[in-house]
Structures are given as structure tokens and as C-alpha cells.
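Running co-folding for 2-acetamido-2-deoxy-beta-D-glucopyranose.
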Amino acid sequence: MALFHNITAIILAAFASHAVNAIILGNQFWNLRCRSCHNANSLEDCNNYIQCGPGQQCYTDELIMSSLKVAYQAGCRSDRQCGASDDPSVMKRQQVLSISCSRCCNDEDFCNQRLCGLRKETTALMCLSCDGKDGRPFPPQYADDCAYLRICDTNEVCFAKTTAIKPTGEDTFSQLRHFTSCIPTRVCSELLRNINSSYVVDSHVGKRAEEDICAICSGRELFNHYACTSMKTYMINLIRHNKLNWTTMDEIRTTNG
Ligand SMILES: *[C@@H]1O[C@H](CO)[C@@H](O)[C@H](O)[C@H]1NC(C)=O
Ligand SMILES: *[C@@H]1O[C@H](CO)[C@@H](O)[C@H](O)[C@H]1NC(C)=O
């Protein structure tokens, strides 16, 4: 019972300190997250993100460089700057011929990935990828502490898994590990079809030093940067309401939006 209680406490702690359900439900209690990059050619180059402070929004600027190349700047900026016309600090830089577009948004995380002409050149998804493979960062305790984005293969979607860890010499699961990666779409499909039974909290953990307590996947870009439990709740809701596209593993969206 003590063991069960501990794992539950960890899950609740992870859930509460990273109150992601707020943003999934459309509230703005959570810091807005934005794509962040300098002089990117396309969205594929814009592979970082930052969390905005209060009074800030996501922005994307499209610059025409004196070389006549188009480059994108993206990140957070203040509401006041969003209302202003050309940012003098950008114009002062000699290699910039003109700012052809400058837009802000704050309606959802990463909304600036659709502003100005910032586009992806492939159909592949970008996902958080702290999996410790191929030189990538190792999984941190919390989703927030992974800022490494990767373009998946075209037949892959975003995956996240939370594992409870019993440190050596201790008899309680006192740590978490948030693993993120890309997985094949067909594996995701299997996981979602069995979502009711996938990684439920197990009170018969026994002597194992680690236990997977949550796993989820989604075809929604960068979705795996949220806490696993929140993403799972969201995906279960999509399935229950028949709103999941089983080809893309993403929400069914009305096209005339
Ligand atoms: C999953 O559980 C919910 C309620 O607990 C139920 O309505 C639903 O049919 C279940 N889905 C599957 C695939 O078993
Ligand atoms: C699911 O996504 C595919 C690929 O984008 C699309 O062709 C199909 O119409 C979508 N299905 C539904 C039900 O929206």
C-alpha cells in the first residue's frame, strides 16, 4: 500500500507542478511556448522552443536579407512590441533589406509556427526527443527540462513515457524519468487501441527498480513536451469522442477553419 501511495504521489506531483491540463483545456495559466530560432530557412531549422514571460506573445518575423534570401526569426516578444511596426533593432542590422512580415499570436503553444511564410518543407513531424540515443540528451525528470526537438521520419509520430525510478539503496520510487522520442505510427496505433490497459499504476511492482507509469503517443506536432498523464487524458478524450484520426493519430480538424 505504501508503495502504491508513493507512486500515486509522484504522479500527482508531476501533474500538479506541470499543470498542463490548463492549457489543454484552453486556459492561459501556463506559460505560452513558442518556436524560437534565428535566421531559419524553414520550420525544420526552427528547432528550439522557449517559454514566454507574462505580457509576452509568440512572434515570427520574415526578413529579406541583403543577399535576397528569406530568413525567419521567431520567439517571444512583449505585447507592446507586437503592436509596433518595424522593430528598429532588427532594421539596424545591415544585412537585413526589409521585414516583409511580422506577426504575433498567443492562442496556443507554438502558434508562431504558422505565421508569415514560416513553413515546413516536409510532412514529417517534429517531436521532443530526449531519449539518450545518437548523442541526444538523456531523459530528464520533467518534460519541461527537455528542449531538444527532432524531425521524425515521415511514418513516425511523437511518443512520451514516464518511468518511476527507485534509486539504488532506496525502497521507494522517489524519482521520475520523462522519455521522449519518435515512434512508428503503427506502433502508436497499437498503443492507442489498448490505451485503457497501457501502463496503469501497478500496485504489485515487486522488487523492480523502475516502473513505467505512463506512455502515450500522438500525431500532434511537439505534443510530447507535455506531462505524460495530461497527454494521455487528452488522447483518451479524443478517442471517446470519436475525434481521433487513426491515420494521422491527430485530432480530426475541420478543414474550413
Ligand atoms: C475504455 O474505458 C472506457 C471507460 O472506462 C470505455 O468507455 C471504453 O469503451 C474503453 N475502451 C476500450 C477500447 O476498451
Ligand atoms: C485523416 O487524415 C488523413 C491524412 O491527412 C486524411 O486524408 C483523412 O481524410 C483524415 N480522416 C478524417 C476522418 O478526418
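Result summary
The chain has two domains: 33-114, 122-249.
The first helix runs from residue 2 to 17.
Job closed.
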